[in-house]
Design a protein that fits this description.
A: 428 residues, ABC transporter involved in vitamin B12 uptake, BtuC, two-stranded antiparallel ribbon, 16 helices, globular, B: 264 residues, Rossmann fold, 8 helices, 12 strands, 25% strand
């Protein structure tokens, strides 16, 4: 046991690298043990992302062109936000099948409120749309928690119900568009996805983001060291910081290349910082607050949480509220991307892609394991498949088949790692 | 951990004439029990004897129908688990106490997280958890930040016990703490139980395992079909008399002073 290099104890227990590793070398070894033990963290999804990108790049040299990559970020945005939304209820060991159409209702309400009849300020329209979606989550959460019904069934009912409500809201025309050239609030909504940050501002924003994340990364560790607690190895912090810088430079650099043959189109789309900000906010909520801790506890062992004094029903209801609220934001992004909403929106496919993206990213279907960043990575994989197959001229059926296969693969990995964790835990 | 022992005279928790029924089923008849501070009391009984019901009455999960509960000699009512916790009564349930996906610190502070402003104060919690584990001599755990899923059964039980005693507990009740453990792990948990006693806590241990009972208990109390049939110092019992009390409710070998009728 005193041998520092032996990071697995006698019972075959696997210690996460965050706990106990003193140097980068030890960390890498502990991390590798963990990967072999079945819990690979972000590794499979990142490898998957690279493989999918490489395959599409071989099939079509356009795939990794700056123009297509920016397109990929935009297409992925809705999947990412919906995956993050679904993550809240998956963490609780529940599921919400209604968020595709709840998102659509968010998009429809925001779009309707900036039509000529209302002409509300765009930000107020978004706020009301998101609040309405949060209210939907509250209703569904109270029904599920209050009556002890399975979330699967209640939200399946919600799927149909909100689909119907969406059609009612869209009225006889079945469409609400945001393409009036004279309505500033409509243009502002569309601009979220379809306008870009100037290249200079993009670099400055990246610099600010790196400083912010750097503080968030380094400050707790500096404090831990000062308090005499085990901190992450400095080498690891340097590595993490470097990875953030590289990823940021790639995204901003690629986006700042002119991607039009005629009038220059360049810069990071506004939706990118919006999505990253949302993920940052939910990461802090889930990982740094008491509420977030209780979400993980309820998902891991609801009975233990109850006996520890956690109000399990309140946590569950808030999970559904945050899920629907986030879905509403995804719906606004969808409306912005499409320049309006119509009855063509496929909420069924959206929710399945959302669940798939969350699970592909590493969130467990069994509750208690998952992070907001899993939605980002999983959503990008779904976006890659969607974008790449479209680029190659494959029809929707092949997108569905490919996404289905990736989802099954992700669930298998999830189930295997869960089994690994359990068998690892019961060895005495 | 700062539970102060009550005076050598009265017991910390005193039950007198406790009855509890569920519908037509009478689970407890007129039960008396004393749990003194600084002593381990073993609650024995066959399946269905009423051990769990009695434990849950003390833990505030059930409310008693009749009878008196005294805390340091003062009559009290325990209406819910929160009131029990406020008094300093903690229960360690066999398997339901910990969330596997959370680490040791997170589990020990679950439901009572320390915060600095809006955010969790992880460093503060980690130090306090480490101090508690150290004071209980729980040294086999490699990192306090590893998920409970990676711990052995004995380590989990140790964490569950440490969690229970962190909160200025006065009385800790352990429900079958060694049921799922191997020999070495059982020894570790029993050592832990003795240490709780040394810290001045009243400990009640529910166990089927008479080896464990005689290894740690200062006092024995035996339930049979909802009645307290024997209670007294562990020295007044032997293995056979306990088995007799558990299975038939009486023992020819038992010292008469152990009989509950003698009172305290």
């Amino acid at each position: 046991m005193a041998d520092e290099t032996d990071l697995t104890a006698a019972g075959g227990e696997v210690i996460p690298p965050e706990a106990g590793a003193q140097s980068l070398r030890e960390y890498v070894r502990a991390w590798w043990q963990q990967v072999r033990g079945g819990d690979a963290g972000l590794l499979p999804v990142v490898i998957g992302m690279v493989i999918v990108a490489a395959a599409f790049e071989i099939a079509s040299p356009l795939f990794l062109s700056p123009g297509n990559l920016v397109n990929l970020f935009i297409q992925s945005a809705v999947f990412i936000v919906l995956a993050v939304a679904e993550g809240f209820v998956l963490l609780l060991g529940e599921i919400d099948l209604s968020i595709g159409y709840v998102a659509a209702i968010g998009g429809v309400i925001a779009s309707l409120l900036v039509q000529a009849d209302f002409n509300w300020p765009w930000w107020l329209a978004i706020a009301v749309a998101v609040a309405a979606c949060a209210a939907i989550g509250l209703i569904q959460g109270v029904i599920i928690t209050g009556l002890g019904l399975p979330s699967f069934v209640v939200t399946l009912g919600g799927y149909l119900f909100w689909f119907g409500v969406m059609i009612v809201l869209l009225g006889a025309a079945g469409i609400v568009s945001l393409n009036s050239p004279t309505m500033a609030n409509q243009q502002a909504l569309v601009a979220i996805v379809n306008s870009n940050i100037s290249p200079l501002l993009g670099w400055l924003g990246l610099a600010g983001l790196v400083v912010l994340l750097g503080i968030a990364l380094w400050l707790p560790d500096i404090r831990r060291r000062r308090n005499g607690l085990v901190a992450q190895p400095v080498g690891l912090l340097v590595l993490k910081t470097a990875m953030i810088v590289v990823a940021g430079v790639l995204v901003v650099g690629i986006s700042n290349v002119n991607r039009s043959r005629y009038t220059p189109v360049e810069g990071v789309p506004w939706v990118v910082p919006a999505v990253l900000g949302l993920i940052g906010l939910w990461t802090v909520l889930l990982e740094r607050t008491q509420f977030g801790r209780h979400v993980y506890a309820v998902g891991g062992n609801a009975e233990a949480a109850r006996r520890a004094g956690v109000s399990v029903p309140i946590v569950r209801i808030w999970g559904f509220v945050l899920c629907s609220l986030t879905a509403g934001i995804g719906g606004v992004i969808y409306a912005s991307w499409q320049g309006g909403m119509s009855t063509n929106v496929n909420g069924g496919q959206l929710v399945l892609f959302a669940v798939a993206a969350a699970v592909i990213g590493g969130t467990s279907l069994f509750g208690g394991r998952g992070r907001a960043i899993h939605g980002l990575l999983g959503g990008l994989v779904i976006g890659e498949i969607y974008n790449g197959l479209y680029l190659l001229g494959f029809q929707i059926q092949w997108q569905l088949i490919a996404t289905g296969l990736v989802l099954i693969a992700a669930v298998v990995v999830d189930a295997l790692s869960r089994r690994g964790a359990i068998s690892g835990g019961t060895t005495t | 951990m700062t539970g102060t022992p009550t005076g050598s005279s009265g017991s910390l928790l005193t039950l007198r004439g406790i009855s509890k029924h569920f519908g037509a089923v009478q689970a407890l008849y007129d039960v008396d029990l004393d749990l003194p501070a600084g002593q381990v009391t073993a609650l024995c009984g066959d399946n269905g004897a009423g051990k769990s019901v009695l434990t849950k009455c003390i833990a505030g999960i059930y409310r008693v129908d009749h009878g008196e509960i005294r805390w340091e000699g003062r009559p009290i009512h325990i209406r819910n688990p929160r009131e029990a916790a406020e008094l300093g009564i903690e229960t360690v349930y066999q398997d339901l106490a910990l969330a596997n996906n959370l680490d040791i610190v997170q589990n020990m502070f679950l439901g009572r997280e320390r915060r600095r402003g809006f955010f969790l104060d992880e460093d503060n919690m980690e130090r306090a958890a480490a101090e508690t584990l150290a004071s209980l001599h729980v040294t086999t755990i490699r990192s306090i930040r590893q998920p409970v899923a990676t711990l052995s059964g004995g380590q989990r039980q140790a964490v569950a016990v440490a969690k229970a005693v962190m909160w200025n507990s006065r009385l800790v009740m352990l429900d079958e703490p060694t049921a799922a453990l191997g020999v070495a792990q059982t020894r570790m948990v029993l050592e832990l139980v003795k240490r709780l006693k040394d810290h001045g806590l009243a400990v009640m241990i529910i166990s089927h395992n008479l080896n464990d009972v005689f290894a740690v208990a200062d006092r024995l109390a035996v339930l049979h079909l909802g009645r307290m049939v024997a209670q007294g110092d562990a020295g007044e019992f032997d293995r056979q008399s306990v088995v007799d009390y558990m299975t038939t409710g009486e023992s020819s070998r038992g010292n008469s002073s152990a009989d509950v009728a003698s009172g305290v």
